[in-house]
Design brief:
The protein is of the alpha+beta class. It is built from one helix and four strands. The longest helix is centred in the last third of the chain and has 9 residues, at about 50-60.
Length: about 70
């Protein structure tokens, strides 16, 4: 958009979605999923992998590989 700061790092990702604010969501060659704030600039990492992104953000499930709290 006119007057928006550049989205540093966006050129190295595959954008597959937008968040509710219209910010792009994508993953890099390592699979790290991030979003880029188009109003203020800057990358926000959402998950270490696409699978983790689907589990945590889309399905709202815990990562099965994550350590579980002691009972």
């Amino acid at each position: 958009a006119h007057g928006s700061p550049p989205l540093d790092g966006i050129e190295r990702v595959v954008v597959f979605s937008e968040d509710h604010g219209g910010n792009p969501v994508g993953y890099d060659v390592a699979g790290v999923v991030s979003t880029w704030d188009h109003d203020f600039g800057g990358e926000v990492r959402l998950a270490a992998s696409f699978a983790q992104y689907l589990l945590r953000k889309c399905l709202k499930l815990a990562d099965p590989r994550a350590p579980r709290p002691a009972a």
